[in-house]
Design goal:
Elements: H1 2-6, H2 10-32, H3 40-56, H4 66-94, E1 104-108, H5 114-123, E2 129-134, H6 137-149, E3 155-158, E4 168-174, H7 183-193, E5 194-202, H8 205-217, E6 222-224, E7 241-243, H9 249-255, E8 265-272, E9 284-285, E10 290-292, E11 295-302, E12 305-312, H10 318-322, E13 329-336, E14 339-347
Parallel strand pairs: 1-2, 1-4, 2-3, 4-5, 12-14
Antiparallel strand pairs: 5-8, 6-8, 7-8, 9-11, 10-11, 11-12, 13-14
Bound molecules: S-adenosylmethionine (SAM).
Length: 349
């Protein structure tokens, strides 16, 4: 039965939980912004404009413009929410990090609140103290309105996060680091005052490079997704998660009007800590499934070494069929050309 398999792997279960939880925040924000009555073509045009601005690196204070805030919310908010949701769930699943009551979570460059709402959904049973700092009044107002309508209490501050003295368990910088001129200094300061640092950037080469460079220069301890390894694809390629998240209907509709359609949520991330460690180390799938004539392939990172594993279409390996990017696996096989031909494979749950 299909529905059964949809929840077969930890990643699929996480995608489903993320989708279910995102709904209330997105609906509330979309109603505040009147997005359901917004002309879809205009929204798509503004998303294009915003994407070009973000890629060009000429940031300014784009969130202050209503049309760009609406475009951000419709298209990037769901992705931002699930990126943080996924990383926090992975920390809980794969490391020895134990959440504590009233722990402090600081989100720097909050925007309309994607990461703080994800953090709330994951840790709400622990009554966390969640702080978001944002330099755009417009974006912060939207985050405040959503929180108010959902009746949750968060600490939301307007201003430049460089000017705040922050301390806590977890610090999150999601799609905010690349907008900083002094990113090294910022990360150094945060590492001194937090147990865990989460850096998330879009899944393009620049996003990967900025995280890897900071990690190298500051000699940070990466625990996820790299499991403490030296990345061997650096300089040749870049590593990113690509997850088939089901977006809200409105985002799907506007996505269909865009020239570059979003198929997967793609992002690069790094979780750093010298106090928290991994419970399991195992090969990790780092690509979506690639289909070639007569066979199916995944790219795997195994202790920093990157190679392909392949299954012939006629072979039956159920765990391979249901696996997706970011799953941890164990397998047996033999080297065939530049790949490992699988004999068996198991998903680690
Ligand atoms: C690309 S958005 C990401 C928003 C949110 N973290 C997310 O994942 O959806 C980056 C946000 O960081 C804010 N920002 C950038 N530099 C900042 C700073 N130094 N202090 C406060 N906010 C900042 C921007 O205004 C913008 O809202």
């Amino acid at each position: 039965m299909k529905t059964q398999y949809f929840l077969y792997t930890p990643i699929q279960q996480s995608l489903k939980r993320g989708q279910d939880n995102l709904h209330k925040w997105f609906e509330t924000g979309a109603r505040i912004l009147d997005l359901y009555d917004y002309p879809l073509k205009k929204l798509a045009k503004n998303i294009g404009k915003l994407s070009s601005l973000l890629i060009s690196g000429k940031f300014g204070n784009y969130m202050e413009k209503n049309e760009l805030l609406s475009a951000y919310f419709a298209f990037f908010f769901p992705q931002g929410y699930y990126r943080t949701f996924f990383v926090l769930e992975e920390i809980l699943r794969l490391t020895n990090f134990e959440p504590e009551d009233n722990m402090i979570i600081n989100d720097l460059g909050t925007g309309p609140g994607a990461s703080i709402f994800a953090a709330y959904d994951i840790f709400k049973d622990y009554n966390p103290v969640i702080t978001g700092i944002e330099k755009s009044k417009n974006a912060l107002e939207l985050a405040k309105n959503i929180a108010e309508k959902q009746r949750i209490k968060l600490n939301l501050f307007h201003g430049d996060f460089n000017k705040f003295e922050l301390k806590g368990e977890i610090a999150i910088l999601s799609s905010a680091l690349s907008e900083q001129k002094n990113s090294l200094k910022i990360v150094e300061k945060i590492m001194e005052s937090h147990r865990l640092l989460i850096l998330i950037e879009p899944g393009w080469r620049e996003g990967y490079e900025i995280i890897m460079k900071i990690s190298d220069i500051l000699k940070l301890h990466p625990i996820l997704p790299c499991q403490g390894n030296v990345c061997k694809i650096r300089g040749k390629d870049w590593c990113h998660a690509a997850l088939p998240f089901t977006l809200p209907d409105l985002t799907v509709r506007v996505n269909s009007l865009l020239s570059h359609k979003l198929k997967y949520i793609k992002f690069t991330y790094g979780v750093f800590s010298s106090k928290v460690s991994l419970k399991t180390k195992a090969p990790r799938i780092i690509s979506p499934k690639i289909r070639e004539k007569g066979k199916e392939i995944f790219i795997v990172c195994d202790g920093g070494e990157v190679y392909k594993i392949e299954k012939l279409k006629k072979q039956s390996i159920p765990d391979f069929d249901y696996a997706s990017c970011c799953d941890l696996i164990s397998f047996e096989g033999e080297i065939k050309g530049n790949a490992v031909r699988l004999k068996s494979m198991r998903l680690l749950k």
